[in-house]
Amino acid sequence: MAKRKTSRKKSKQDFQIGFVGVGRMGANMARNLKDNGFNVSVVSDANTRAANALAKELGCAATKKLAKVTALSNVVITVVTDDASMRGIFGTSGDSLLVDAKGTTFINCATISPATHVQVEKRAEKVGASSLEGCMASSITQARQGTLYLMCGGRRGVFNRVRPILDALSVNLRYIGTAGQAAQVKALVNMVMNINTAGLAEGLGLGQSLGLDLKVLMNVFSQTGANSRVLETDGEDMVIRDHECYFSADHAAKDSGIALKLASQEGLNLPLAAASKAQYDKMKRLGIGGLDKSGIAELTFPGRKGTSKRKK
Amino acid sequence: MAKRKTSRKKSKQDFQIGFVGVGRMGANMARNLKDNGFNVSVVSDANTRAANALAKELGCAATKKLAKVTALSNVVITVVTDDASMRGIFGTSGDSLLVDAKGTTFINCATISPATHVQVEKRAEKVGASSLEGCMASSITQARQGTLYLMCGGRRGVFNRVRPILDALSVNLRYIGTAGQAAQVKALVNMVMNINTAGLAEGLGLGQSLGLDLKVLMNVFSQTGANSRVLETDGEDMVIRDHECYFSADHAAKDSGIALKLASQEGLNLPLAAASKAQYDKMKRLGIGGLDKSGIAELTFPGRKGTSKRKK
Questions:
Q1: What's the mean pLDDT when you consider all of chain A?
Q2: What is the ipTM for the molecules in this complex?
Q3: Which of B177, B226, B273 is facing A202, going by the closest CB pair?
């Protein structure tokens, strides 16, 4: 049986794209879409100054009113900070993205808990809108260049409908499953990454304490069972204490926390994940949670802030 | 000033090589050297049957007497199980490799504590012998094929003297530093590897519990910050429960223990290393310490031996 074509493929000009949350990730995604010939209709952020500046740059509207974002757009990309913010912008009373939202498609790119994605999808569908989770496993540069690693969860039809936008944002696009499942995968990715990062910081810190040549040590790590992606991305930064933030310790703690909550719901005991979260939590307590995740080396290298040991 | 040549380069025929400890690693190293045209003079093992069988295969002597190994060899390669065994074969009284050992070179390939390497070097030099640590970061196949990752510690002159043997054993040969330093690097490699392995088992176990497609999950891991060498070597084994032993949980626990002891001496607190050691210790308590290190997934996948959770 031949497939019946139910609708023509969407083109760039079919989309009027609004953005809620234009911090470093959201702003750069908007810039990239604009560069790619998409219509960015409106931007909104709790930080009015940031929203206004970006609106000027992109030649679009800026607003604090969420209902106006929906009014000006048929697709709204949200990149907010946490579950509470997500529930706030998708509120069921007062100003909300859900006001007169029939036909609107929401693409939600913040790293939030899987349950919130499920909840937002339900609320959206109740008013005749659609919701797709778009979990990103990349950072600012990739957002700007449209080379995100983007994992999507939700209805396949919604995924297909906004596919041109997703393609423009990403170089690696994956449909994972139902709403919340992409966030689960993302939480697992970051949980494992955080464990590997914390472990690497311990290996290099002890190596430094023993007086080993850390260049040789990292080279040996790279050629053996100790090799990892974080060795490539964070190893040298740990040694030279370059903790400029790409992915903060605060975020690492949050994401490991999401994974541990899932584990607890599943009745699983994950001691490595717990130990790594405790380290990132310790960074927060020490006031260095804003450092890049590589800053965890400050807890394991002799003579640094988080260790009791004096510098040799 | 031109360098003075103090001795001609050694050739294969200059060496009479004895082996102490011919388990799976030692026996395969002996086979490889024999294949490469070296003289294997004698083999010795607490397991007499294993020593006799190998001696027959290689056409060399077998003995239980350590002094005889030294008498028949000018180079002795030792591959024993632990520190106590090392101190035993290099005993200062009774039957020992050090009896009439003047001029003998010992290459010690067991994974033991750095301090024991230093002690053995001292004892060897006291009787006019030489000692080199040769730490291996590879497994049985590499031993057989002469493709070991071999890190050496000791005097540079000793390293140079037995270089033809080391070259035949390894594809990756490194002079790390003084006696004990190669063992330190090895301990750090295995400590980090064990952490990454334990963390991977948690990520995959939770993924399974959540009902995610583990092939997709591993593929996402491989393309993101969660990637690691152990994902390549152990990921699938964890999923399909293929825990045929290449590197046992018992050994993992031992090696992490060596690293943690060093950390304790250095006054460093390494919570991830401690958590991973506790997991491998738990495997020992559950009677599954003989499984490959990938068997740690038995503690984190729902419904398996080490988890309280029932199979879904």
A1: 93
A2: 0.85
A3: B273
